[in-house]
Amino acid sequence: MIRIHSHGNSSVMQFETHALAEPQKGEVLLQQTAIGVNYIDTYHRSGLYPLAMPSGLGVEACGVVEALGEGVTEFKLGDRVAYAGGAVGAYASYRLMPADKLVLVPAKISDEIAAGTLLRGMTAQYLLKRTFRVHVGQVILFHAAAGGVGQIACQWARELGAIVIGTVGSDEKAAIASQYCDHVINYKTSNFVERVREITAGKGVAVVYDGVGADTFEGSLDCLAPRGMMVSFGNASGPVPAFEPAILAQKGSLFFTRPTLGHYTLTRAELVATAADYFHAVSRGFVKPVIGQSYALKDAAKAHQDLALRNTQGSTLLRV
Ligand code: NDP
Fold it and tell me: Where in this chain does the record put each Enoyl reductase (ER) domain (predicted)?
């Protein structure tokens, strides 16, 4: 497994061997087959989201049920299951998990897609269908459209009938995003606020989904139509600075929300329904998640380096 003994850059990530424990009441022992790497893992490692030390890393994986603790009735030995979110510790070949955090993986979904994209897929689900309900004909702006969440969410928003403007940080990523966005803006080489105003004939967009954070926050507000919704769901470039609520009035009586997946999967029923909706979107083929890169578990530090350098596209996986 990968553990850290202090916060820091990717050099704090160590590959260690530990004895396996027996599953306790309500727990399941998983033999993990593939592990997702998410941007949040870098916040846990760096200390932006602090952890008690020493700590594992990772919040997402797919695996096979190897042993059942007392009272677990929803799963049986050999079931293929996945989880996304919750306590850290996914960067491991075996893991004990509370059974109520697991979902069954449908036969049509590969271990790699379940492990590498369930968290992003469930995030896209709640962002597009519950944080703000995307409707047919609405113009939306999604930042980092070639990233893990971005690829899934933009494809799904298109399926919901939205007109999707996606931003990206390179020409290579622009070529990828243009396959599923109506308009693509390279925000490194052009002013995305001006481009959005041009595309919308000055009206602005109904909603901005912003997982980039510090670098895009102000510009994102300037892209919104009056009474538009600013959804700040991540900090890839650093946290959003503090701001005066009055700025929302000045820029058009805007709405602001800072959601996280955990609050949209609070109950077992919400978790199962959110995962099922995502798996359904993939099975039907209107969301085609891409595993852009994979690494051996012991090379997890390299995955973190590539994420920070913006060298990744789509989702990122660790092979067990
Ligand atoms: P991505 O694969 O999208 O990687 C992040 C992308 O952000 C980069 O590829 C890059 O794309 C862009 N970016 C812009 N500025 C920077 C910067 N300074 N440093 C690094 N990257 C930058 O990651 P994920 O799909 O894992 O996550 C996307 C966002 O969603 C993250 O902020 C994450 O924390 C958030 N998230 C939030 C959840 C929630 O429930 N609130 C759940 C899941 C994810 P480009 O080069 O095109 O600019």
Answer: 8-318
Is the distance from the beta carbon of residue 259 to the nearest atom of ligand 1 less than 6 Å? yes
Confirm or reject: Cβ of 237 under 6 Å from ligand 1: yes
pLDDT given for residue 129 in this prediction: 98
- Which pLDDT belongs to residue 4? 98
Q: Using a 6 Å cutoff on CB, does residue 234 contact ligand 1? A: yes
Q: What is the number of the ligand 1 atom nearest to the C-alpha of 188?
A: 48
Atom index in ligand 1 nearest the CA of residue 38 equals 26
Of ligand 1's listed atoms, the one at least distance from the Cα of 308 is 20
Domain boundaries, the chain: 2-118+265-319, 136-258
Q: Check if the interface score ipTM surpasses 0.90.
A: yes
Identical topology for domains 2-118+265-319 and 136-258: no
Interval between CA 308 and ligand 1 midpoint (Å): 9
189-233 pLDDT tens trace: 999 999 999 999 999 999 999 999 999 999 999 999 999 999 999
CA 34–ligand 1 middle distance (angstroms): 21
Domain 136-258 maps to which CATH number in 3.40.50.2020, 3.40.50.720, 3.40.50.1000, 3.40.630.40?
Answer: 3.40.50.720
Structure tokens that stand for 273 in this block: 């329904």
pLDDT given for residue 8 in this prediction: 98
- 34: tokens are 């593939």
Q: What CATH number was assigned to the domain covering residues 2-118+265-319?
A: 3.90.180.10
| DSSP codes joined into one string, 193-219 | HHHHHHHTTT--EEEEEE-S-TTTHHH
- What is the model's pLDDT at position 27? 98
